[in-house]
Design a protein that fits this description.
This protein is an alpha/beta fold. The protein is built from 7 helices and 10 strands. The chain has one domain (2-234): Rossmann fold (3-Layer(aba) Sandwich), CATH 3.40.50. The chain has helices spanning 9-26, 41-52, 80-87, 109-122, 159-165, 184-188, 203-211; strands spanning 2-6, 31-34, 62-65, 67-69, 99-100, 128-131, 153-156, 178-181, 192-197, 229-234. α1 (9-26) packs across α2. The two termini are 16 Å apart.
Length: 242
Amino acid sequence: MRIYRAKDYDDMSRKAANIISAQVILKPDCVLGLATGSTPIGAYKQLVEWYNKGDLDFSEVTTVNLDEYKGLPRDNDQSYYYFMRENLFKHVNIPEGRSFLPDGTEPDSEKACSRYNEIIHQVGGIDLQLLGLGQNGHIGFNEPDDHFSLETHCVDLTPSTIEANKRFFEKKEDVPRQAYTMGIKTIMQAKRVLLVASGKEKAQALRDAVYGPVTPALPASILQYHKNVYIVADEAALSLFG
């Protein structure tokens, strides 16, 4: 586990984007596992900037996203497909049909999850998986639990996650109560993992994930068992580190 200390959010975003761009340059046909949320937006913005300068080429890249809300169509402005399109996909040259997310419109959870697992296997697995960190230690939508879920599954979102996400919706009642998410096994099978964290509100979860016991009660703690993890975090998120 390698920890890179950034001065602030912008510095964290540049450092994270450097790691992602290096993956694309070293293996142009790589599979990138992508994440949504406010934390990776700066990294995506930096990647787009480098693409526009001609420094990056995504023409052979395939992407698979961590998760999607159950029940939201792609054109809903709070769906994760919409988020990815607005922040990355429409700005770079990832080929049409090579960016995958779970199908939030599929009401049959078993079918949606099985289909997404098959897609991940068909593309050959993930070369670099980008992760954010929830205040409760969740990664993707793998919420605190009494066991680690394996592959893609449907989750009931916890009250703290609903509370954290309500700022993106008109009212709290509009936040979906379920989501499809990659499981811990899928994340751990990625060749490399990049975890980004910003802000003091992430400090306790980040410290516990790195130094605490490995427990499904704090899903990110499982990353202690991964052989190739990069953590890029700003001073605030690392404030509880020595």
